[in-house]
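Thread: "does anyone have the structure for this chain?"

Original post by V.I.:
We have the sequence but no experimental structure in hand. Need at least a predicted one for the grant figures.
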Amino acid sequence: MSWHRIDAPIGLASGEKHLTVVGGREILVCRTGENYYAIAGRCTHSAWPLVDEPIEGTEIVCTLHGARFDLRDGCPTAGPASKPLATYVIERRDDALYVSL
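Reply from O.Q.:
Generated one for you, tokens below.
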């Protein structure tokens, strides 16, 4: 695995998101409760940017067409999307966040 320190703040509040680019990939860092998740930054159905979309529980909602994705594994939980989002392992180390590509 290749670990990369990212510029996302560790002080994100629950429900907040931060978009970063690592290795040419748009990665959306999301926080729910005490957990951080790293997912692809665009919906797999229409490539709609997810950075401003709402988080409900452990799902992110693409409001363009109503697709929903589980932040834990990227799997769609509601259509029209049928392909999962890419997910990345994320870790908090001291005062920084790291993702593995």
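V.I.: this helps a lot. The chain has one domain: 3-100.
O.Q.: and The chain has no helices and ten strands.
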